[in-house]
Every structure is written in structure tokens, then in C-alpha cells.
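Why do we bother with holo predictions? Because pocket geometry can differ from the apo form. Keep that in mind while you read this record for magnesium ion.
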Amino acid sequence: MRSAWLLSAGCVLWVCSLTAAIEPISTSIAVGMAAALTGFLAGYQNMFYYFNECCRPEWISYNKTGLKYDLDTKLYGQHVAGQVILKAVTGFMNNKKPKKPLVLSLHGWTGTGKNFVSQLLAENIYVKGMESSFVHLFTATAHFPHEIHIDTYKTQLQDWIRGNVSICPRSMFIFDEMDKMHPGLIDSIKPYLDFYDNLNGVSYREAIFIFLSNAGGENIVQVALDFWKDGKEREEIQLKHLETALSLSVFNNKNSGFWHTSLIDKNLVDFFVPFLPLEYKHIIQCGLAEMIAKGHSPDKEVVEKMAHDLNYFPKEERVFSMQGCKVIPSRLDFYI
Ligand SMILES: Nc1ncnc2c1ncn2[C@@H]1O[C@H](COP(=O)(O)OP(=O)(O)OP(=O)(O)O)[C@@H](O)[C@H]1O
Ligand SMILES: [Mg+2]
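The structure, written out:
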């Protein structure tokens, strides 16, 4: 990650040193020569921008149509999450002067598409998608595994966020396994999510923070199950049916990192995004998409065989997939 930071800094510094280098050329040398040199340098600079990722519109620009298309065609069974994300992100990206960074909290059962949506988002804002040096993914158990080092983690994380946002205000920070994050660590990033004009000269208002967790997943499942039991269509589920249960459950759940913090208390999270548990038909869709991704022609029979062998709940009715679409890439290989 550090190298990405240095590279981005290099991008800025290179431009600065070039400007400094041409300043002494100020005497009566032919204006034409200066113009030619400037033209040459501008061309060179453009080439630099072209080949090296910079914090500029050539590399960072929001593609609303692309995001809508991806959410509509690639994300299965998540009509609520899709709508909320599109509205939230479009509103934020179109706002020339946001008052605070965008903070999204994605919740739901395993394998329902939380990381996948983050990836779609990154791909429709940054040319390099998740590979962009302006997109930062932290996984609680991988990056902050030892409670004993919490103070070091806090300093490192704050330095990392401050350093990267000062290089590129439109930075994206994704925190995976948020429910496993130490509450102190969540607390340490709180100032960056708030309504400050700037903190020590750095403004965080263009940044995007995305929190992913399974917290509240069971409550979401319960709502989906109730709808199913009442014979209602899944598509009838709206945000309002899930919102209250979700935020309260997250807030009251002792196992959830949110519980200890004032993230919710202080309204720092702009949108709680619920991910519904996936059904058999969505597993089929994921399976077919995965076959294409693996370079095979989609074969419904093969995918159905695989989907049939997965686990579903409730046990009798087999409505929702236990693992969502997460195990499909590995499982599919056994059936092809
Ligand atoms: N709703 C979905 N629509 C399309 N593909 C999906 C969906 N959910 C999951 N997938 C597929 O399954 C893979 C794994 O899903 P993902 O990592 O996004 O799950 P998750 O919600 O983050 O799960 P966990 O809570 O276990 O981290 C994705 O990369 C994607 O290929
Ligand atoms: Mg995940």
C-alpha cells in the first residue's frame, strides 16, 4: 500500500518539479522557444498523465450509466441495495460541495454481494477500479489482527487516511469485516467521517468510506422470511421494511464493533444498505455468470446440479442459500 501512496505522491511531485524547473527560463530568450518548450512539456505531461494514474478526471470520473447498468445486470436479487447505492452515490458525486464524506454501511448475510458491489462502485469511479492507488481496502482480521497493537494500528490508519486524502481528496476507503474491527479503531477514524471543513489543513469531504459487515444480517433474513411466509413477492421488500430493524440490531449487538462507538449516535453513517439473502434462482444466475467468467459457455444443467447440492434454510423449505454466491467459483469446478 505504501508504494501506491509514494507513486501517487510521485505523480504530484513530478508535476511540481517540472513547474519549478521551467521557472528560471525567464530572460529574453525567444518567446517562441519558451512556447515550444511549454508545448513539449505539456505534451510530455499529458503523456505522463495518460500512462500513470493521477488524481485527475482522466483517471477518476463517476460513470452513473455504467453503475446503473452493472447494478441492473450483474448484481442479482438485491433490488433494495442497488437502488440505495445508486441514489446515494449519484447524489454525492454530483454535489460540488459536499458537507461531509459519503459513508455507506453495507450489511447482510454471507455471499450476498457486499464486496462485489464495492468492486462495481470502484470500477465506475476509478479507471483502474479496485487496482487504483486511490482505493484502499482494509480487512479487520488481516490488517488489524492483534488487539495488543491497537495503538499502533490507530496511528498507522490515521496517517494512512490523512496522507492519501491529502494526495487525492476523491479517495475510497473500504473497511471489510467491520464487525470484527476493534471499537477503538473505529473511534479513531470518526473525525474523518464528520462535518469538518478541514482537519489540520486536509478536507475529507470528497472521500468515500464503505463499511462491510454481517451485522444485522439475521434481522434482514427474518424480514425476507416473513415476506416469503406471507406469500409476498421479494421485490415488494422496501428499504423502510429493513431500515429500523437493521440500525437497532447493529447498535444493540454486542458482537458488532458499531455497538461501542458513536458512529450511529452521531449520524455519521449516511446510508445503511441491506443485502437480502439469496434464493435458488439467484444461485443459478451467479452460476451461469461464473461459467462465462471461467470461459465456458453457460450450461443451465450443470449449474442446476451444483445449485441443488448447496445448503439452504429453513431446512424444510430450502428458500435461502446458506453461503450465497460465495462458494460458486470453487464448487462449479466439480461440476463442469
Ligand atoms: N447478489 C449477487 N449478485 C451477483 N453476484 C454475486 C452476488 N453476491 C455474491 N456474488 C458473487 O459471489 C462472490 C462473493 O460475494 P461477496 O464477496 O460480494 O460476498 P459478501 O457479501 O462480501 O460476503 P461475506 O459477508 O462473506 O464477506 C462475488 O465476487 C460475486 O461474484
Ligand atoms: Mg465480504
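The CA atoms of residues 110 and 323 lie 6 Å apart.
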